[in-house]
Write a structure and sequence with these properties.
The protein is α+β, with helices and mostly antiparallel strands and 449 residues long. The chain has two domains: 218 residues, Aminohydrolase, N-terminal nucleophile (Ntn) domain (Glutamine Phosphoribosylpyrophosphate, subunit 1, domain 1); 149 residues, Rossmann fold. It is built from 16 helices and 23 strands. α4 packs across α5. It is globular, with a radius of gyration of 22 Å. The N and C termini lie close together (7 Å).
Length: 449
């Protein structure tokens, strides 16, 4: 058994040109997953098309645009298993249901020998539906036993689409309209870029059902505390998105401002690591009065190395990921800004490139706390052995990376910058906001089989 954990992108459309909008929405969520893409739609039953790679590689645009269904859900995937197969690509479906899912069911292993937690969700819901239970009842039953993070869209054989967000609200999910079409998306930026209007966030614990005629019904299970993933603000989400009403861009600006105020460095220039670190670097530059320079040039074809499925693939991406503007860095003291450091592969490579280009000093400042613990809510931190900060202090990390110094934000500084306390900080603190207190050793053994 191999566990698949995902921080992916989901999109759904009800209305004319449904599949076209879902296809375009997935392209705008491509940053959330680059390994596979798929779309399920209704046409004489539930049908699914999917493939490996980026959206335009995985799905034939000409074929997609010929599909006339008014009901569709879609998915872009980032996995952490070290393998990518078409069988594991989403959406997953049977004759009754199709599911596109973003998150991780932390206790899925308690319910049988499933290959993926998505497979578990599909099987669990299908059993209730086959027994004659209403789909909303089935979802509530699932929410009662499932532990972990799940934002998902579901298409059933009655031409209904449902949007579900777990009671803790770990992952974002938004409802909107494009013309007369009702849409759901992992991020509101995709809806807005397609010319649509955002209606509202799906609430933690909420189940929204859209009937074939467009009538919207909402139900909700009790939700006592919210714990939206801090990394949605720090790294994953597009800077032009809002999550639960909080601007990702402005959060990143404030991360940089607090970083400069509380963790200063004597330097000549501020250099961001593209792409998500740019607003953090802008904030740092504004607060410190040190000029910002775009000395690192990210190649257009480069993928996000953090979400590559194996260490070998991550390293191969890094080899061609950045170019250096030598005239900008030569002889300069640099404050190098990154949003986070997980394994250290990217940062070590960048520091080597900057040294080779003549940088005099390199002081790394990180717009997040030290990542010390695994994540069981859908991010690629499955093992403490992979985390550079799991058992090292800042001086030790700086030495390994080849930096003159390195400093991180504290958890309280991060919360202040983002502007909300209701965040999941498990990877920084080791405190997991799950229903049960699973022993860390047990979870690591399960998630790394």
């Amino acid at each position: 058994m191999m566990k698949i954990k995902e921080n992916c992108g989901i999109f759904a459309t009800i209305g004319e040109n449904s599949v076209k909008y879902t296809y375009e929405g997935l392209k705008l969520l491509q940053h959330r997953g680059q390994e596979s893409a798929g779309i399920s739609y209704v046409e004489d039953g539930i049908k699914t098309i999917k493939g490996l790679g980026l959206v335009e590689e995985a799905l034939n645009e000409r074929e997609v645009l010929q599909i006339k269904s008014k009901f569709s859900i879609g998915h872009v995937r980032y996995s952490t298993t070290g393998k990518t197969t078409l069988q594991e690509a989403q959406p997953l479906n049977n004759e009754k249901l199709s599911i596109a899912f973003n998150g991780t069911i932390a206790n899925y292993f308690e319910f049988g020998n499933y290959s993926t937690d998505t497979e578990f969700i599909l099987d669990f819901l299908s059993k209730d539906v086959k027994e004659g239970k209403d789909i909303v009842y089935a979802i509530k039953h699932f929410m009662d036993v499932a532990d972990g993070a799940y934002s998902m869209v579901i298409l059933d054989d009655k031409n209904r689409i449902l949007a579900v967000r777990d009671p803790k609200g770990f992952r974002p999910l938004v409802m909107g309209k494009i013309g007369e079409n009702i849409v759901f998306s992992s991020e509101d930026s995709a809806i807005k870029q397609l010319g649509g209007n955002v209606i509202r966030d799906v609430l933690p614990g909420e189940i929204i059902l859209v009937n074939p005629d467009g009538k919207i019904l909402s139900d909700k299970v009790p939700s006592t505390s919210f714990h939206t993933c801090a990394f949605e603000y720090i790294y994953f989400s597009r800077a032009d998105s809002k999550i639960d009403g909080v601007s990702v861009y402005m959060s990143r600006i404030r991360l940089g401002e607090i970083l400069a105020k509380n963790h200063p460095a004597k330097a000549d220039i501020v250099v961001p690591v593209p792409e998500s670190s740019r607003p953090i670097a802008i904030g740092y530059s504004k607060e410190s009065k040190i000029p910002l320079e775009e000395a690192l040039i990210r190649t257009i074809v480069s993928k996000r190395s953090f979400i590559m499925p194996t260490n070998d693939k991550r390293k191969s991406v890094l080899e061609e990921k950045f170019g250096i503007v030598e005239d900008v860095v030569k002889g300069k003291r640099i404050v190098l800004i990154d949003d986070s450091i997980v394994r250290g592969n990217t940062m070590k490579r960048i520091i080597t490139l900057l040294r080779n280009s003549g940088a005099e000093e390199i002081h790394v400042r990180v717009g997040s706390p030290m990542i010390k613990y695994p994540c069981y809510m859908g991010i690629d931190f499955p093992s403490r052995s992979e985390l550079i900060a799991s058992n090292k202090n800042e001086d030790e990390i700086a030495k390994i990376l080849g930096a003159d110094s390195i400093e991180y934000l504290t958890v309280d500084e991060m919360k202040k910058a983002i502007g909300r306390d209701s965040l999941c900080t498990a990877c920084f603190t080791g405190i997991y906001p799950l229903k049960r207190n699973y022993p860390l050793q047990v979870m690591e053994s399960v998630f790394n089989r």
